[in-house]
Amino acid sequence: MSDQQSNVDAEEALQAAKEQKRHTSQATSTEDDQDDAADRVAAIKDALVAIEDGESPENINFRDAQLKALLVGLNDVGQLGETAKKLGTVLDDDVDTENGVSQSDIARLLMRVGLREALPEVREDATEAEQQKALEQTTGY
């Protein structure tokens, strides 16, 4: 066998090994993702129960100077309501702006849009957790 032929055979064997490894790691990755999602759903459901039972606060706090400046600017020019309506449209949610809209309302909507756009699987898990919690409360299980 020539050196060129053995190089080709070695290259083919290397490619085959890479493909095999890729297929094996993808299956494991999918299983891990499913386990992670199940853990995430359970953790979110537990957090929902803790919040409802008063064992955990329902508010969140974070620091972001640029976001705060944006919210203050929108408030100063009277655009919180308009912004809330636009965000509600993105979320397919009818946002109530009749009673006024706060900076907190806008931050909440922005976070929901971000979850929907960047991490849809996490938002789906949160929805599933909410459904499981409701089912457990309805059935007593």
**Strand count, sense and closure of the main sheet?**
none
Q: Helices and strands: which structural class?
A: mainly alpha
Poorly predicted ranges:
none
> Can you count the helices?
5
Distance between the termini: 70 Å
Query: What's the count of strands?
Result: 0
From the spread of the alpha carbons, the general shape counts as extended
The amount of beta strand, in percent, is under 5%
Name the helicity range.
Answer: over 70%
Order of helices and strands: HHHHH
Rounded to an integer, what's the Rg over CA atoms? 24 Å
Oligomer: single chain
Tell me, rounded to a whole number, the average pLDDT.
86
What is the topological layout?
Layout: H1 3-52, H2 65-76, H3 80-90, H4 103-118, H5 120-139
Main features:
mainly alpha
Concise summary:
This protein has 141 residues and is mainly α. The protein has helices at residues 3-52, 65-76, 80-90, 103-118, 120-139.
Report on the structure:
This protein is an all-alpha fold. The chain is built from five helices and no strands. It has helices spanning 3-52, 65-76, 80-90, 103-118, 120-139. The protein is extended and about 70 Å long.
